[in-house]
Amino acid sequence: MIVVTGGSGKVGRACVKDLMDHGYKVTSIDMAPPPGQSNPPKPGDVTYSRADVTDFGQAMAALSMIDERVEKVTGVVHLAAIAAPGQAPNHVIFEVNTVSTYNIFEAARQLGIRNVVWASSETVYGIPYPDGPAYVPVDEAIEHPETAYSLSKLMGEKMAEQFCRWDPKMKIVGLRFSNVQEPQDYAHFAGYDKDPESRKFNLWTYIDARDAAQAIRLSLEAKLKGAHVFGIANTDSVSKRDNDALLEKVFPKTKRKRAIKATESLISIDRAREVLGYKPKYDWRKKAKG
Ligand SMILES: NC(=O)c1ccc[n+]([C@@H]2O[C@H](COP(=O)([O-])OP(=O)(O)OC[C@H]3O[C@@H](n4cnc5c(N)ncnc54)[C@H](O)[C@@H]3O)[C@@H](O)[C@H]2O)c1
Fold first, then answer.
1. Which of 196, 188, 205 is closest to 280 using CA atoms?
2. Quick check: CB of 12 below 6 Å from ligand 1?
3. pLDDT digit string (tens) for 157-208?
4. pLDDT surpassing 90 at residue 273
5. Fewer CB near the terminus (10 Å): N or C of the chain?
6. Rounded to an integer, what distance in angstroms lies between the CA atom of residue 216 and that of residue 207?
7. CA nearest ligand 1 atom 42, residue
């Protein structure tokens, strides 16, 4: 049984579906029920329990003792969070995200659940890049939080290292997702070319929720130990404009680590490709063409 926290959210819904489509039994833990779910659930609906994972008792119980759920939890996907800067006052975002991540890591450790995947964020690369990134493609070596939200995600990455030192058999994979998009969001993409500044905040990158779900599943299945971080984006950018032209105009001081292709992702996904076998399947251009 895989427990997914935040299973009612944007990434969570895609993750729950992907795991169930691949034969996993899944329980979703969230403060909000899955949208449209009836009571009792219909066949094929995810099992859902309400819990607030900022409360350690609820996090422990959610990973161990819910009467309806009889199977041992073998893996945890932790997505529950205040999911972007600005969605709450800074200190609330920092507290909710840092405490909930601690609680899930600690509950997993105490319960001997050694397979944990969680959502870090592209913001750790330096979003909204007030002076541009030092280099592109940005990669996992960069730790440059500019907001309380981003700092909470970097704290999660640092906590993961220490939890895996305490229990060397533990695996905690943090995925630095780009800005998550669902198919209906692609209707907006054509407009991004009009204003080169409109998506500079995240280097014109995106991640399809279904590819985010793929990365989560591959991370659960990866035979790794210890704490790992992977950048997760789609292979292309949101813009039809040439990357070099965009960078020259918007971030002239940013260096290139190598030659940059016209519309490739400026978030490196090389490590995820090599270690996880991550291969994004979705591409907004193909979707736009139908
Ligand atoms: N959406 C993005 O562009 C993006 C980008 C990078 C990283 N992330 C991260 O990915 C994860 C999922 O993001 P999302 O876009 O699906 O967010 P979302 O807001 O759509 O979903 C988050 C879910 O977590 C639940 N939740 C919040 N606090 C909770 C708590 N204390 N206990 C239980 N449930 C709680 C909410 O009810 C919600 O259903 C988050 O950790 C977010 O920080 C998102």
1. 205
2. yes
3. 999 999 999 999 999 999 999 999 999 999 988 888 888 888 999 999 999 9
4. yes
5. C
6. 13
7. 83
Going by CA atoms, what residue is nearest to atom 18 of ligand 1?
9
Band of pLDDT at residue 285, cut at 50, 70 and 90: confident
Q: Confidence class of residue 250 from pLDDT cuts 50, 70 and 90?
A: very high
Give the residue from 25, 284, 280, 31 showing the smallest Cα distance to 177: 280
* pLDDT single digits (tens) 137-146: 999 999 999 9
Q: Which atom of ligand 1 is nearest to the CA of 12?
A: 16
**Left (φ > 0), alpha (ψ -120 to 50) or beta: where does 10 sit?**
alpha
pLDDT higher for 233 or 69? 233
**How far does the centroid of ligand 1 lie from the alpha carbon of residue 242, in Å?**
32
Which whole number is the average pLDDT over 257-272? 97
Structural domains counted in the chain: 1
In this prediction, residue 196 carries a pLDDT of 84
Phi, psi (deg, nearest 5) at residue 207: -135, 125
289 band by pLDDT with thresholds 50, 70 and 90: very low
Nearest to 262 by CA among 207, 193, 211: 193
Q: Residue 253 is part of which domain span?
A: 2-289
CB 206 near ligand 1, within 6 Å: no
Which residue's alpha carbon is nearest to atom 1 within ligand 1?
180
Place of tokens 């032209």: 245
